[in-house]
Each structure stands twice: as C-alpha cells, then as structure tokens.
Amino acid sequence: MMINSFFYNFKTKEKRKNLVEVIYKKYSFQEKIGDGSFSSVYRAVEKKTKKEYAIKIIKKNNLQFKKHLIDNEIDILSKLDHPNIIKLKEIFNTKKKFFIVMEYAKGGELFDKLREKDHFTEREASKIIKKILLALQHLHKQGVVHRDLKPENLLLSDSSQDAELKISDFGLSKMISKQDIMSTACGTPYYVAPEVLSHQGYGKEVDLWSTGVIMYVLLSGCAPFYDERIPILFKKIKTGSVNFPKKEWGDISKEAIDLIRHFLIVSVPLRITIKEALNHPWIIGKGNVKTKIPQKISSQTKKNQKQISWDWFEEII
Predict the structure, then answer these.
(1) Where are the beta strands (DSSP E) in 104-253?
(2) In terms of CATH, what superfamily is 108-313?
(3) How far is CA 251 from CA 22, 27, 173, 221, 257, in A?
(4) Each residue of 86-118: pLDDT tens digit?
(5) Candidate ranges 35-44, 67-76, 149-158, 291-300; pick with highest mean pLDDT
(6) 13 versus 128: which is more confidently predicted?
(7) Per residue in 2-13, pLDDT tens?
(8) What is the mean pLDDT of residues 48-53?
(9) Which region holds residue 169: left if phi is over 0, alpha if psi is between -120 and 50, else beta?
(10) Strand partners, 90
(11) Nearest-10 crossing angle of helices 122-141, 206-220
C-alpha cells in the first residue's frame, strides 16, 4: 500500500478550504473518545455508509506538535494490513490540522472487557497472546517495531464474544531495517525492555519483552516489575528477576509460566522469538489451558500503573 492512496492533501488556499468542507460533509463527528498531548480522537460516522470510525485530529499550531512524528505514524499505518492491527482509512492534511481516519474499535480496551467477566480461562488468555504475536509477526516483517505495547493499546473490534483483538497507537513505533539499532528511550515504564534502559541500542525484540509483561499482568493482575520509585523500578527491570507468588500463580499452568520466563529474558539473543513463541506448548494448547482465572484477579487487570513521562526520567536511566 502506498501512502498517497490514503492522503488528501492541499495545494491552494481554495482547495484547503474545500478540503475542510469535504471532511465535515463526509463525516458526522460524535463524542470525544481520547486525548493526547497534541491530539484529540473522536468517534465519527461516515454519512454515506453509516460506518463508525475513529478520527484523530492534530493541531499543527500546538507548541508540542512534532511533524516528523506524525509523518512517521502515518507512514507506518499506511504499510500495515492485518486483522489484529487498527487499519488506516484516509488522511486529510489541511492548513491547520491533520485528520487521521482509522478503524474504530467499538469494543474498547481488552482488559476492561475481561473485568466484566466472573472469570476467564488460560485458553482465552492463550488466544489473546497468540493474536498479539501474529500482529507482531506482521509488524516486524514490514520492518516496524511498535515500542509501546501495553494493555491500553489492546482494543476489541466490537463487544461480541467473537470480537477481534486490535493493536493500536503507533505514535512511538519505528521503521527499521535488519541492520538498524535504535537508541531512543521510549515506551511505558512498566512494559519497557531492559535493553532500552541500558543505552546500548535495541531492536525488535523489545516487543517480545512487552508481550511477556502483558501476559504476566493478564494471568495474575499484577506487574512482574513494580515500584513507584522509578530508579528502583528500572533496576528491577534490568535485573530481570521474575517471581511467581503462589497466591496469584498457584493454579496457573507450568507451561504459561515457562513462556513468560522465556519472554522476560534480559539477554536479547536468548529471548524467545515470535516463531518459537507461536510454537510454544501454551500457545498451541498443550498446557493446562482450562484453568480459570478468578474474578478477584481479573478485576485487577485494569490499567493501574502511573503514566510517567519520559521527559523527566530520561536522565535517571
């Protein structure tokens, strides 16, 4: 897919004005469903088809607006086409704003949906992790590293039992070649890989680490590495010592714990790959996948970690 096939640009003042009119004639804007540091997201209905979409509006005059980041996100979204990844529909580039029209995941956040259940099973959890892995497999084949996988970015296509998992938010994602090494410290503290904190460069393997943290939280309701003091938290992550307390993990299968341990290996060359994870016994259904995860644990899977800005703790790492 080429980015130009999504892009409605402007050339003249008259066309810029017409483009804004086109947007509001084509879509009926509804409630705000999200806010970012330099953008807002609205639910919108395409008038002709009655289909719902999420439209991210980015003001160019915002002091925090960074055009290269927006260009990067748009470029990445235009290259992705997978059932477990939020799809880009079109982009409107006006004089003052970007309008990015994307698939609307009306089912909301995955973890919120799980909290509504009395329990869920390891089989259900296994299917969730498998879908994340399949999405990552597509991303990495396209040369994209997400770099910010976390529960808040796991959405559901709708509210049905058969809703599809959707990975969202590619604002921190990066296009790389096989030889590229990244160095920018980014992500969400509790889900960030140790190599990001070590300033020695990192690659696509960071997404596998984050998947391991998500799996740990999914099955226990707790974070594998936690401390409100950021320096201590980062020290725990870089050490990579993971505990499985009997209270939370006594009924969880050994296959599940084994997979988490392989995700959360500090040494990057030894960390499990996507291919290996997709063939792991817990993913292919050979573990104790009928184990029920009780509601008292499931209710903790709501996001509860502080959202901490990299701006002030980059110096710590």
Answers:
(1) 108-109, 119-121, 144-145, 154-156, 165-167, 174-175
(2) Transferase(Phosphotransferase) domain 1 (1.10.510.10)
(3) 56, 49, 36, 14, 11
(4) 999 999 988 888 899 999 999 999 988 888 887
(5) 149-158
(6) 128
(7) 455 566 654 444
(8) 98
(9) left
(10) 101
(11) 170
**Both tokens of residue 315?**
């110096």
Q: What are the residue ranges spanned by the domains of the chain?
A: 23-103, 108-313
Cα 262 from Cα 208, distance rounded (Å) = 9
Q: Is the CATH number 3.40.50.620 carried by domain 23-103?
A: no
Query: Residues 85, 135: contact at Cβ < 8 Å?
Result: yes
Which pair of tokens denotes residue 155?
């959405």
Which residues are annotated as catalytic?
A: 148
The rounded distance, in Å, linking the Cα atoms of 191 and 207 is 9
Per DSSP, the three-state class of 221 is: coil
174 marked as part of a ligand binding site: no
pLDDT attached to residue 187 = 84
Residue 64 neighbours by CB distance under 10 Å: 10
d(CA 190, CA 200): 19
Q: In degrees, to the nearest 5, what angle opens at C-alpha 183 toward C-alphas 179 and 189?
A: 125
Q: Do 89 and 53 form a contact (C-beta atoms < 8 A)?
A: yes
